Batch of 4 targets.
Target 1
Amino acid sequence: MQDWDDLKVFLAVARAETLSGAGRRLRCDAATVGRRIARLEQALGAELFLRSVQGYALTDAGARLLPHAEAAEGAMQAATEDLGGAAGELSGQLRIGAPDGCANFLLPQVCARLSDAHPGLEIQIVALPRVFNLSKREADMAIGVSPPAAGRLVVQRLADYHLHLAGHADYLARHPPIRGLADLRGHRMIGYIPDMIFDKELDYLAETGAETVGLGSNSVPVQLMAVRAGAGLAIVHDFALPFAPGVRRVLTDRLSLKRSFWLIRHADDRRSDRLTRLAEALAQGVRREVARLEAEVLAGEHTASPAP
């Protein structure tokens, strides 16, 4: 019978598909990972990976070992949860994958409060403008802008949020009043690079009728900073506006978008009380933070002078 450390190395290589990637997860060098895999294969009398210049791919024997290794991982996690830590306190590492808008403007505050409540937690926020692969354990849980249609996943609606057309006050003052969508002609539109939109829910500018993106980025914070610099107009998350002084919503009565965040977990993680509790704490925190920031935007508009 193999010990858990051997199976942990096997799982890391299976998920990362390279020795270097597995080494980073395990916090050891690639050569050590390679030796551990060779030792495991020798002990089992079976080749677990096909080696190539592209990386490490599971053989049939490796694929058969995978569910057993994942079951062992689940058992170890359950034992740790059952035996370790003070009652009610959560600890250990939690890696959250999220689109960069959520990761930049919501998760820092949410995770700060979560860390204060559970000092033993080691929280990692991975901000990437793409869909995360939970089967390869790129993250313990992920936040998406639409529910995935396939995979062994548990999905729950996390929070609804709103977006509006916005521009910096200086930019708006330099241009004619915007009273309708037709007035947007001639304005530089800021948004996603069209061929880098990884989810149809992110095709915000389609709602404006804009045919071209004058200034594009695959990053939400970059788009917002371009708006703040007076480079043009963009569809902006309401919850991001408190972080961009001077950026104001326009045409709120004509153009208002509502989207949702979804919390996505691997189906096997339902057996983990720890991850279930963390998921619920994360969900509650995100909902409260979206509501707080959107309310702040509305309160600010009620005390500000009318937009041009």
Target 2
Amino acid sequence: MRRLLFLNGIKAFEAAARTGSFAGAGAELNVSAAAVSRMVHLLEDRLGVGLFERKANRLAMTPAGRAYQSGLTPIFDALASLTAQVTASSGVRVLTIGVGPTFAMRWLIPRLADFRKHAPDIDVRITTGGAAAPFGDDWSCGIKLGDGEWPGLVAEPLFAADLVPVCAPRLAQQLKRPGDLRGPSLLRVAHSPGDWPSWLKASGVARITARGPEFQFYGQALQAAVDGLGIAMGIRPYIDDDIAAGRLVAPFALTVPKGMQWYLVYRSFQTEQRDFAAFRRWIMRSAAGPTVRDKGRKKIAEM
């Protein structure tokens, strides 16, 4: 016989552990922070185990609390997903993908028509957020740049995030060696200030400092490069389509690892869901396609 102790207390504890505070849990559960605290205290009494260490300005989980939360969160996630499936219209199959705006615009959206050919009955919904955006409760999966370590989530590598300068073909004709680069022409991305220094150091021209216009996102810098404003630091897969189409070229052979990779990120129970399984098969196959950097260099040679 299944023995479940005090479900309200378990739900209160899981929310407090995940949000890091009784106030955050209360906002999520529509109760007061004091009510959450009481329910967690009752749960601890019934379990006979302390789950939190109450400190002046924060909550700290005990080892037992960490172990309990690591098991509870996937269970609640799976329950929410199952409930959504059961209550959804029988004719609608929804796949929600969390992805950054530049990845969405420069790689995913241009390829969604191909996915629709393989799975025309799946309603794809894209929700965007930056690299630091938390994994959403309603996401089927996410595509993230990082080190592959997201607690509680499965992360499968998609692309290596190698850095290589790119520019418009006409500008590339003036670049024979890295020493031809000039600081004011090097376009920058605000959230990745280390890209140019890393590549310039590896190329032996660390004395050059990027001082060109600064943009918030890679996509903006790459569009500026297409328009001839300067040389952007390209990162795969953002540059694949522009290089394949000849809008951008990579004038130098040197590529430098960014130190991170792109991953397909999801909760383990999603592997049992056919819509996610179909998307996973498709994106793994699409990501395994050949790189296009050599095509870009070949275009320069043919000019």
Target 3
Amino acid sequence: MVTVLVTGGTGYVGGWAIAGVLERGYDVRTTVRSLGRADAVRAAVGADGRLEFAVADLLRDDGWDAAMEGVDYVLHVASPLGDENAKDADALIVPARDGALRVLRAATRAGVKRVVMTSAANAASPASYAEDGVTDETLWTVDDPKLPAYRRSKTLAEKAVWDFMATYDGPTELTTVLPGAVLGPILSADTVGTTRIVQRMLAGTMPGTPRIGLEVVDVRDLVDLHVRAMLAPEAAGERFLGTGEFVWMREIAAALKDALGAQAAKVPTRELPNFVVRLASLTDPSLRALTISLGRRNRHTTAKAERLLGWKARPAAQTVVECAESLLSHGVAG
């Protein structure tokens, strides 16, 4: 049997990656920082006997060689926890970069066939999000201290692994996947992940919608892209954008209102002027990373993934509505 290692089994994307790989008939090993979460992960993904656990932390070397033993493929979807609003950007950048290299080095020592690493579309974006046009995987984000630490961390972590592979001479291959805004259903109330933006809209904690455009990709489609990139011979040594349909926040709000009726009564419909968001960000750290995206018009193309891997993302409205329905059904919508 083929064994796939999924890093970060307690995470939002990690949980769906486990479920998706098991569904396709492969054995899965997943890394957790503590075995205390193993039962919760099993319950969330509906695992049978083909799921096992390895204790490993992206911040430490211990455990990674054991985690890679007997593994054929690695889906490195985990990312170290960090404060996106920290004044010291290295608090986010260094763990992301070093964690990615830690996984890749262990995989090459074990002779794993291929590592598929999750990066981000903002690692392939122009200096200004306000620029018109469509960009592809050939573009690399230029590192700039003025950029949000999260965006810098994703860019620098991906660059670090490609630099490592440029000096590596062995059988292990590398592929990176660059998703947009990952939404969709949740597997458990304990793992809300990046769906918090929909959660906040349902709860009415946002006074209005900022003028921000998201390239919404369903978490299930993202996992499908990872698996395709894992198996396709032509995916070796390639970057693949995994963004979805570009929608403004106000369009997400409208989709929720239309589909959910009274359950979306608190969803804001008013679009906030940019200056209001910028003023609010002076006192609300959670808004600071958003200001660079106000009025964003740049988009990414997934033509490469569609052409080489046969991948296609579902409509954004379907994803956000099913995300909201899942949050409601799990009792964590507000």
Target 4
Amino acid sequence: MTLLNAPPTFNWTPATLTDLPTVGEPIRSLDRDVEGGPGARLRAAREAGLRFRSEFATSGVPASVVTCDLVTLPYPTRFGLFRATKALAPFLSITNRMLVIRWNDSDGRPRVLLFEPSDVELGRKTPYFAELLRRTPKPVAEMVTTIHGTVLGHLTRLGIRPEEVDYILFDHLHTQDLRRWIGTTAFQDDLGKHTEAIFPNAKVIVQRDELLGMANLHPLQTPWYQPAAYRDVPLEAFLPIDGSVLLGPGVAIIKTPGHVFGNQSLVLNTSTGIWVSSENVIAAECLTPEHSRLPGLASWSRSWQQEVILNANTIETTADQYNSIILEKTIADRAQADPRFLQFFPSSELTPLWTNPGTSPTFRHFAITHSA
């Protein structure tokens, strides 16, 4: 794993991205350009979240939301629970999940969105995880990693053909290799073939900031991205957006910078109220740490007067990530199963494992399930 700044591996520039189409209806209530420092931006985030909550609740609901487990894997405790944890275990476990969202546009056209459809096999080539695997004995790696299913296997079970997928969305592109999903323009040595798109009609919705940042990574970013995997993907497969957009009835993407510069979160209006999903935190209790039984979280939150616990494997702009989590916290409804916690669904959710003492979550969502 190199920590040096890698040279650009593809020619994405503001000019080339400007020529691409975009998608969605801009959400003006979430515009947060304010004068002043991070404290002023924090206050603006709370105010914007309250405005957006009331209007989004009237936007309708999608036809269905289904949750699909992909993989449970180890993750450094000091990253996932930032400085708050007192757990002795160096690693905790997180479960990556895909959401499949369906709705009909105003003209009746059916839409399918895949949120976090990670190619788990190719994701292992991420520099950080590749180095971790190299240093971990295979029996140990197999013991702490569980494959629950594949993207294509879940879609087959749901009766969704690959060509029916309209949109692919990630909160950010850490670890993601999209070559099999959107195809390549040249032969791929490591795959041994020229890859045709498995999802031929799908477009990847991504913040323009992140696409530009990936073309010239900072050393803080290099362990977590696979820039070479984007060298030969077709640029026209991307739909860059600038900020927050309403994508369909009860389906929105909001810009939540901080974890990465171009971070974004999925917001859903469902039969149980409003949900927010991202990897800004790894457990619902990280938004209300005063109710957490995880060692250290409640006391750290009180001592430092910080009301959220960041997922901090990258701290590109930590204050902005904090503010983005407050925005998410302001928007999400209370959980019906336990109102102490919010309907925040971590795209990678903290999962108990006997090898990781002190990291068993107080509360888990497991899934978002909705049918109109």
